[in-house]
Amino acid sequence: MTFHPNGDNRSFLMQPTKPVGIVGYGAYVPRYRLPGSEVARVWTNGLGGSPVTEKAVAGPDEDVTTMSIEAARNALARAGIDPQALRAVWIGSESHPYAVKPTSTIVAESIGASANIQAADWEFACKAGTEAVQASIAMVGSGMGAYTLSIGMDTAQSRPGDALEYTAASGGAAFVIGAAEESCAVYQGSYSFVTDTPDFWRRADESYPSHGERFTGEPAYFNHTTSAASRLLDMMGTTAADYTHAVFHQPNVKFPSRAGQMLGFKEEQMKTGLLAGEIGNVYSGSCMVGLTAILDVAKPGDRILMVSYGSGAGSDAFDLRVTERILEIRDRAPKTRDYITRRTVIDYATYCRYRGLLRD
Amino acid sequence: MRKVAIIGVGQTPVGEHWDASIRMIAAEAVHAALEDSQVKAVDALYVGNAYGASFSSQSQLGALIADYAGLGSIETFSTEAGDASGGAALRTGYLAVASGAVDTVLVLGVEKSTDTVSTAHVRARNVSLDADYESIHGATLTALAALLMRRYMHEYGVELGAFENFSINAHTNGGKNANAMYRNQIKPGAFARAPMIADPVSLFDGAPDADGAAAVILTTVERAADLVPHPIQIIASAAASDSLALHERADLLDLRAVRASVNKAMQQANITHGDINLFELHDAFTILSALTLEAAGFAERGQGWRLAKDGQIGLTGTLPISTFGGLKSRGNPVGASGVYQAVEATLQLRGTAGANQVPDARIAMIQSIGGLASTVITHILSI
Q1: How many contacts does A have with B, using Cβ atoms within 8 A?
Q2: Is residue A285 a contact partner of residue A172, using CB atoms and an 8 Å limit?
Q3: Which of A86, B6, B105, B108 could bridge to B215 as Cys pair (CB 3.0-4.6 Å)?
Q4: Cis before residue A313, ω within 30 degrees of 0?
């Protein structure tokens, strides 16, 4: 089946049998910040720019498990549900602490979920988190469960001195998915666009990822984000002007800005969710934490486009509409902006210690 | 020796062709040249390629491309001379037709250079330097060009900004060429402020490596007259060489091989400098352009940069260079660059260069250089 630019493509639109939405959301961004100028100081004698001002760095006692628990608690607080009601706990990340042994079981038990759940760790580079959201929409929308929890969280790795070191950051977000009538943002539809495009990878037993440099741009990030977004808009019968906010996977500031521009979005629609300049690229949590920042300030009726990107490669695009319930729940947990302003700047040496980069 | 003419040209856009393999872009240029020439078959295919074995994990390009492009079981092989591989293929084709060995030849230059990451790219590129005395010590082509440029600036008291017009001119012309890789314009002053790659060679100085394929079809002048309305004659073909290692050269700022090959070519063609209407030189670095203009006899020593400053190298100047953007703006598809020069000069002499046309172009010189003028292959084309 082929997508026709001028045809009826509505069969590609993903919509569940029962209307669903985001019942609760929560962000977590660790406290520490490594300025891009620190990376430049060590590796380029301070010459050349940095794609972000600074990036968020997990502390020495934090990992994807602990940070997922933080975000999940915030999401549950906003959802106002008993964690025993969850029927799935799914965590997307490319920095799961264990190669074999799920992060999701530790998180599920820590937040008080029951044993009657699906639990799994997801991997699709930076779109593992939104892939878990798609699955949650399907599970709740089909009636297999009343509530599920989907998390995108990372402590992203980067080889010392690599261009990625400026941006590879820590943080993410959690979403409780449930029935539309309980939601602060109702799911309208989604679409996923996936190809075999080897732009970025990390083989088993390797500490740091490899990437195809400029190849990560046009044929990878831009092709997938703009294809997923434009096809979703086509199927929804919308244009960029119909959305109050748009948030994209943000490996830096330039890529999402340009992708948004290519699709017709204006800076005003992009700025609330574009956090990469302040926290870096939090990989699986990237557009998801951007969405939490939007929900923190969104008005009922606002329409939101969220587009993820995972190397390898693919994009998930979601169309959401904010409900009155947002006003009731958003103050039940710390705002994303609170986490961003809570910051302690560290130097490169401290960063190396916190991220375990000093080896025997 | 028989007289040789170009009866067909073809080229692919120069750029990052991540969606195509080396045989695919090669076949595109081959078929474009065949269509342009109206010739159905050729007797031989000579392929100019420098780094297929490393960039594309592929050797025996001749047989690969002849088969894929449907040329049949013809004579075919590749020539390698670093960045001058395209010029070497053209000279091979010229000699084959001129000698009477074959009647019709397809000369193809092809390179797929953007499928590797930068560390592997530099390692592959470094094989064109002197392995024992240069690359083993960490030298790269760009670093050695920087040494030459620094020496030039020191010897002649020239500031960095003096070189900017070579890049500005290339991008002015490349901006009008649909096949060029970088069609942006370079503003005056930006050159000297550009990020350094190997000081003083900056981002706006060195030509970008790229993917591309270009092809020309050669036959005898007699046969050409029956085949196409405007055959372009190759009135000279000459090659010369110099040491790979810079330290072996008695005079760093004298490109001896450029001088030797140009002198031989001009003798063959029986022309003087004033007869040449355009010069497609190997502008991999601005310092190579300046030194080439001097060694080729278009400028006094230490004065090559002034031709650019005085606006003499533009399309309407006394010696237009890089008329379709050159390596700098059109891009440098390494082993294919010499054949792109032949294609572009042919378009100029046919009068079909469009917005890039040099007025009243009758004689064009093209020059393909390997390394920092270790291999230099010069051709002169005429209407």
Answers
A1: 15
A2: yes
A3: B108
A4: yes
**A1: pLDDT confidence band, cut at 50, 70 and 90?**
low
- Residue B47 DSSP SS3: strand
Question: What's the confidence (pLDDT) of residue A285?
Answer: 96
Tell me the mean pLDDT in the region B296-309: 96
Cβ proximity of A122 and A148 under 8 Å:
no
Distance from CA of B3 to the nearest CA of A (A): 46
Rounded CA gap, B137 and B119, in Å? 16
In whole angstroms, give the CA distance from residue B188 to residue B153. 19
Nearest to A79 by CA among A109, A71, A67: A71
Question: How far apart are the C-alpha atoms of A77 and A72, rounded to whole Å?
Answer: 8
- Residues B221 and B224: their CA atoms lie apart, in Å, by 5
> Which is higher by pLDDT, B187 or A359?
B187
Q: Report pTM.
A: 0.85
ipTM of the complex: 0.71
Q: Which of A38, A62, A94, A165 is catalytic?
A: A94
- Give the C-alpha distances (Å, rounded to integers) separating B211 from A182, B322, B337: 55, 18, 10
- Helix (H) or strand (E) segment spanning residue A27: strand A20-28
In Å, how far is B374's CA from the nearest CA of chain A? 31
Query: Which chain B residues are within 8 Å of A213, Cβ to Cβ?
Result: 117-118
Q: What are phi and psi of B88, to 5 degrees?
A: -65, -40
3-state secondary structure of A267: helix
Cα angle B322, B327, B330; round to 5: 85
% of chain B exceeding 90 in pLDDT? 97
How far apart, in whole angstroms, are the C-alpha atoms of residue A277 and residue A270?
13
A54, A96, A126, A165: which one is catalytic? A126
B226-260: pLDDT as tens digits: 999 889 999 999 999 999 999 999 999 999 999 99
Beta pairing partners, A321: A186, A303
Average pLDDT (B112-121) is 92
Alpha helices in B157-255 (DSSP H): 164-174, 190-193, 221-227
Residue B307 has a pLDDT of: 95
User: What DSSP character marks residue A85?
Assistant: G
pLDDT average, residue stretch A150-173: 96
Tracing tokens 């450029």 back to the chain, one arrives at: B258
CB nearest A212 (choices: B19, B117, B195)? B117
Region class of A283: left (phi > 0), else alpha (psi between -120 and 50), else beta: left
In this structure, are residues A25 and A337 in contact, taking their beta carbons and an 8 Å threshold? no
How many Å lie between the alpha carbon of B92 and the closest alpha carbon of chain A?
35
Strand partners, A173: A27, A152
Quote the mean pLDDT of chain A.
96
pLDDT digits (tens, 9 = 90+) for A91-141: 999 999 999 999 999 999 999 999 999 999 999 999 999 999 999 999 999
Residue A249 has pLDDT above 70, yes or no: yes
Neighbours of A43 (CB within 10 A): 17
Tell me whether residue A287 is one of the annotated catalytic residues.
Answer: no
Average pLDDT (A221-250) is: 97
A-contacting residues of B 85-124, CB under 8 Å? 114, 117-118
**Which residues have CB under 8 Å from A90's CB, separation 6+?**
A104, A118, A119, A120, A121, A122, A132, A135, A136, A148, A149, A150, A151
| A207-217 pLDDT per residue, tens | 999 999 989 99
Helix boundaries (H) for chain A: 36-43, 64-79, 103-110, 128-141, 223-236, 254-262, 267-270, 276-279, 286-295, 325-329, 336-341, 348-354
Contact A274, A287 (CB under 8 A): no
What is the rounded CA–CA span in Å between residue B243 and residue A30? 58
